[in-house]
């Protein structure tokens, strides 16, 4: 087995037993990504110096016979909308192409305390808006399984990097499926935690009531290790909360009740995806799990609801990019004639890509006088109904099983000219963010060498239940 | 179909400049997305309260205190990011 294929626990044991040093381990990944990332383009910035100094520090600790945390010396890639102090953070946008982060995000601070090694910053759809990584201002990422296909998005760079063994794990952010869908497309594991479980301090905001940071890993066990390291209340994010503590949570798989929403099996699902989901249901049945059909009556309204709420919040969050305080822009300021408004119009008109502009426009429209009640307020009420659907469902079941994406990884260019068809790829993921509940995407099957993922969804703060159910599936 | 005037008006509110071509392309895309989100019209929400966050939020307060900013390293870092500064201030174009 190659070093770059190691899970967190395997790598930790190797470091402790001195089978290899942290520096050797880190260099194995740096060598690989330097050679192979030309064709995948998962990275926007490689932080080689930082990685090497972090690895050397861990080797010193090991040489001094000190106990090291499980994540010490483990390489990680970070989606380029999460801040690492002193490192460029672009959110894959021209408007931030020269922005250097002045502080660490809380999740980065926590991982640094553990001794994690940061290999670099990964590609995304600009400001995390998109489902294919094609909306990056710096060029798309390609799917390691098939270079003609997209890795999914928006955390496509992190998912592709983990799938290609450029890193042991990665961090992503999920506003409407941006961790789960690329993980499904790249055959890796991705968790969207309960809203508030992980601090958003230092995450470049897209839609603040929906955004969550989460792990992208090769196994369920790794996802659990990373989640445990980054979760927790943070005074820098007033929406963050402490998870209720459950010691030694163990689940009897035969006592588990899994719900399958009937509304998800209507139209628009690829037959290969449907087959994979049905196969997963059979596997759980064989383990003795009870499978129940459930109903989420407002499922079909989740997507239009999301595409009002998320752009509305985005239009407010992205108002701060004015070409004045987040790094130099490509515009020559002297060439802009007129007053301050002319400057804003030009900098923002040229600095944002088409999808970001579309969403700012949509949000501005939904929030503008005369439309607020009909669009934004209405969507907020529908959000209440979607939340109630899940609450009712979790009275009857522990876990909801659903496809992650309605389709297999699609070809580059296939959907980029039709924004609405791109939005439809988020159909099974957005409702989870609207409800604020956790969900994991795990690899379930392959079709013509392309991975297919399934989602396991639980009630708020029941990540443990998700991990146990996912572990049982992974072992089967 | 959303009118061209509406697109231009919303763009101005959003502080975005579009070229003539972009405006036209956008008009079409914007219309089809709006048609799609109009699906929400049929949902009965009578008596339903709106949700702004998935969980109840409480205000968290802390003491308000001053940090001497002129000697603070962070303020230098922040100012270094600005395209133009003068005497420790951000410099912008005239408002009028």
From TrEMBL, chain A:
Signal peptide: none
EC number(s) stated in the UniProt entry for this protein: 6.3.5.7
Catalysed reactions, semicolon-separated: L-glutamyl-tRNA(Gln) + L-glutamine + ATP + H2O = L-glutaminyl-tRNA(Gln) + L-glutamate + ADP + phosphate + H(+)
Name of the top EC class for this enzyme: ligase
Gene Ontology terms for molecular function: ATP binding; glutaminyl-tRNA synthase (glutamine-hydrolyzing) activity; transferase activity
UniProt KW Ribosomal protein keyword: no
Domain spans labelled Amidase: 24-466
Keyword ATP-binding annotated: yes
Top-level division of the source organism's lineage: Bacteria
GO BP, sorted A to Z: translation
GO cellular component: glutamyl-tRNA(Gln) amidotransferase complex
Entries under Pfam families matching the protein: Amidase (PF01425)
Active site: 79, 154, 178
UniProt entry keywords in alphabetical sequence: ATP-binding, Ligase, Nucleotide-binding, Protein biosynthesis, Transferase
HAMAP family membership: GatA (MF_00120)
PANTHER family in the record: GLUTAMYL-TRNA(GLN) AMIDOTRANSFERASE SUBUNIT A, TRANSAMIDASE
Family statement: Belongs to the amidase family. GatA subfamily.
Function description: Allows the formation of correctly charged Gln-tRNA(Gln) through the transamidation of misacylated Glu-tRNA(Gln) in organisms which lack glutaminyl-tRNA synthetase. The reaction takes place in the presence of glutamine and ATP through an activated gamma-phospho-Glu-tRNA(Gln).
Subunit (UniProt): Heterotrimer of A, B and C subunits.
The protein's name: Glutamyl-tRNA(Gln) amidotransferase subunit A
Gene that this sequence comes from: gatA
UniProtKB/TrEMBL annotation, chain B:
Gene Ontology biological process terms from the UniProt entry: glutaminyl-tRNAGln biosynthesis via transamidation; regulation of translational fidelity; translation
MF (Gene Ontology): asparaginyl-tRNA synthase (glutamine-hydrolyzing) activity; ATP binding; glutaminyl-tRNA synthase (glutamine-hydrolyzing) activity; transferase activity
One Pfam family cited in the UniProt record for this chain: GatC
InterPro entries: Asp/Glu-ADT_sf_sub_c, GatC
Enzyme class: ligase
Protein keywords: ATP-binding, Ligase, Nucleotide-binding, Protein biosynthesis, Transferase
Catalytic activities: L-glutamyl-tRNA(Gln) + L-glutamine + ATP + H2O = L-glutaminyl-tRNA(Gln) + L-glutamate + ADP + phosphate + H(+); L-aspartyl-tRNA(Asn) + L-glutamine + ATP + H2O = L-asparaginyl-tRNA(Asn) + L-glutamate + ADP + phosphate + 2 H(+)
Keyword Phosphoprotein belongs to the record: no
Keyword Glycoprotein: no
EC numbers for this chain: 6.3.5.-
Function: Allows the formation of correctly charged Asn-tRNA(Asn) or Gln-tRNA(Gln) through the transamidation of misacylated Asp-tRNA(Asn) or Glu-tRNA(Gln) in organisms which lack either or both of asparaginyl-tRNA or glutaminyl-tRNA synthetases. The reaction takes place in the presence of glutamine and ATP through an activated phospho-Asp-tRNA(Asn) or phospho-Glu-tRNA(Gln).
Quaternary assembly: Heterotrimer of A, B and C subunits.
Annotated NCBIfam families: gatC (TIGR00135)
Entry's family note: Belongs to the GatC family.
Name this polypeptide is given: Aspartyl/glutamyl-tRNA(Asn/Gln) amidotransferase subunit C
């Amino acid at each position: 087995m190659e070093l770059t294929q190691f899970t967190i626990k395997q790598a930790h044991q190797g470091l402790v037993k001195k089978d290899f040093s942290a520096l050797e381990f880190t260099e194995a990944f740096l060598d690989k990504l330097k050679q192979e990332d030309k064709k995948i383009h998962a990275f926007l910035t490689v932080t080689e110096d930082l990685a090497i100094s972090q690895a050397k520090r861990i080797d010193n600790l090991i040489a001094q016979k000190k106990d090291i945390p499980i994540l010490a010396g483990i390489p990680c890639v970070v989606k380029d909308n999460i801040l690492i102090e002193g490192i460029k953070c672009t959110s894959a946008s021209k408007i931030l192409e020269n922005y250097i982060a002045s502080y660490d995000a809380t999740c980065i601070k926590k991982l640094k305390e553990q001794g994690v090694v940061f290999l670099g910053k990964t590609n995304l759809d600009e400001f995390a808006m998109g489902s294919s990584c094609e909306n990056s201002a710096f060029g798309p990422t390609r799917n390691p399984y098939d270079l003609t296909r997209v890795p999914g998005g928006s955390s496509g760079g992190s998912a592709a990097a983990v799938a290609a063994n450029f890193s042991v794990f990665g961090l992503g952010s999920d506003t409407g499926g941006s961790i789960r869908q690329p993980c499904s497309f790249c055959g890796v594991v991705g968790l969207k935690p309960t809203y508030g479980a992980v601090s958003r301090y230092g995450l470049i905001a897209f839609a603040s009531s929906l955004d969550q940071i989460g792990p992208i890993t090769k196994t369920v066990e790794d996802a659990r290790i990373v989640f445990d390291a980054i979760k927790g209340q943070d005074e820098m994010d007033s929406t963050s909360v402490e998870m209720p503590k459950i010691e030694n949570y163990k689940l009897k798989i035969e006592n588990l009740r899994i719900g399958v929403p009937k509304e998800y099996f209507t139209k628009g699902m690829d037959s290969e995806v449907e087959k994979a989901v049905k196969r997963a249901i059979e596997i759980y049945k064989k383990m003795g799990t009870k499978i129940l059909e459930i109903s989420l009556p407002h499922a079909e309204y989740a997507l239009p609801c999301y595409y009002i709420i998320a752009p509305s919040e985005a239009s407010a969050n992205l108002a701060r990019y004015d070409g004045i305080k987040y790094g130099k822009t490509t515009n020559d300021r002297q060439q802009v004639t007129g007053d301050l408004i002319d400057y804003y119009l030009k900098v923002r008109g040229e600095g944002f890509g088409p999808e970001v502009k579309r969403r700012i426009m949509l949000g501005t429209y939904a929030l503008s006088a005369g439309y607020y009640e009909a669009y934004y307020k209405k969507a907020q009420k529908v959000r209440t109904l979607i939340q109630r659907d899940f609450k009712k469902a979790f009275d009857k079941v522990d876990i909801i099983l659903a496809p992650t994406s309605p389709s297999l990884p699609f070809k580059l260019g296939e959907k980029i000219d039709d924004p609405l068809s791109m939005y439809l790829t988020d159909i099974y993921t957005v409702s989870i963010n609207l409800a604020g509940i956790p969900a994991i995407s795990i690899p379930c099957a392959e079709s013509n060498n392309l991975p297919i993922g399934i989602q396991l969804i639980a009630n708020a703060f029941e990540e443990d239940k998700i991990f146990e159910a996912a572990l049982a599936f992974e072992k089967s | 179909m959303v009118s061209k005037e509406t697109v231009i008006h919303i763009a101005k509110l959003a502080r975005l400049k579009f070229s003539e071509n972009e405006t036209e392309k956008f008009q079409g895309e914007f219309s089809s997305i709006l048609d799609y989100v109009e699906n929400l019209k049929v949902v009965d929400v009578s008596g339903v309260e709106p949700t702004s966050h998935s969980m109840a939020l409480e205000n968290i307060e802390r003491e308000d205190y001053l940090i001497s900013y002129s000697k603070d390293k962070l303020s230098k870092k922040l100012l270094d990011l600005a395209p133009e500064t003068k005497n420790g201030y951000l410099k912008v174009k005239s408002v009028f």
